[in-house]
Amino acid sequence: MTDRRHADKTADEVKEEVLAVAQRVHAAGLVVATAGNISGRMPGGDTVCMTPSSLPYEGMTVGDLVVVDLDGEIVDGGETGDRTPSTEKALHLECYRRYPEVNGVIHSHAPHASMFALVREPIPAAIEEVVVYLGGDVPICEYRTTGTDELGEEVASKLGDRSAALMANHGLVCVGKSPEDALHASLVCERTAQIVWGARSLGQVVPIPDKVQGDFGNVYGFVREHLWNA
Questions:
Q1: Is pLDDT at 230 greater than 80 in this prediction?
Q2: Per-residue pLDDT tens for 76-85?
Q3: Dihedral of the alpha carbons of 94, 188, 162, 62, in degrees to the nearest 10
Q4: Residue 156 lies in a domain
Q5: Helix axes 11-27, 179-199, angle to 10 degrees
Q6: pLDDT at position 2
Q7: Is the residue at 18 inside a domain?
């Protein structure tokens, strides 16, 4: 994908990125069948391109993607005009409304991250890159019913200083400066969950020093504040 600023991309480029990322999310095993959903903020900032409801990723095309405004009203129902956005649209839209620097959102059912979500336990930032790229420990959200505004509000509340949050008994949500960046966050989170899960079979996971946590957390904060929309 292009490394240009997300704000400089055309509507067609955002749609192409959302589709490419959606197919990579599926290929990476972060979702199966029609589970999960991917979105990207469109040029101008007040509309969002989103994967449609109940459509397999393998055969999905740019023409299947749906564009909605920040209130959830359909602006473009795809080439056929009858596509509907993901049932988790409220989750995506709350992230975009609350954080103007966020330009990509991915909700997945990443297996190892979902294990932590099922036992309602945060994923510890025991590896330095987790703090740099995700902001720190991946928090667990309170349980809210899927597809509801309440779920969107709860998840978004955990993402002010993090790029990832776990949905209790459900899965993973990641945000980024673009859909591609949100995918990177998803992969870092899933890989970390897998490593921590395996490490616990060897013994207790030792946290990195508090000062390192703080220093690298500041790096994440600086990058998010100054470079996500730079």
A1: no
A2: 999 899 999 9
A3: -20
A4: yes
A5: 20
A6: 43
A7: yes
- Our count of domains for the chain comes to 1
Q: The CATH number of the domain where 101 resides is what?
A: 3.40.225.10
Q: Which two tokens stand for residue 199?
A: 């490490």
Closest by CA to 159, choosing from 184, 185, 180, 183, is 185
Q: Is the pLDDT of residue 194 over 70?
A: yes
Give a yes or no: residue 26 inside a domain.
Answer: yes
Which residue range(s) make up the domain with 72? 6-226
SS3 20: helix
The CA distance from 114 to 193, in Å, is: 9
Please compute Rg for the chain using Cα positions: 17
The pTM is what?
0.96
Q: What is the mean pLDDT of residues 116-131?
A: 97
Percent of the chain with pLDDT over 90: 95
For residue 101 the two structure tokens come to 């620097």
Q: Distance between alpha carbon 45 and the CA centroid of its chain, in Å?
A: 17
Q: Is 169 helix (H, G, I), strand (E, B) or coil?
A: coil
The answer to whether position 1 is within a domain reads no
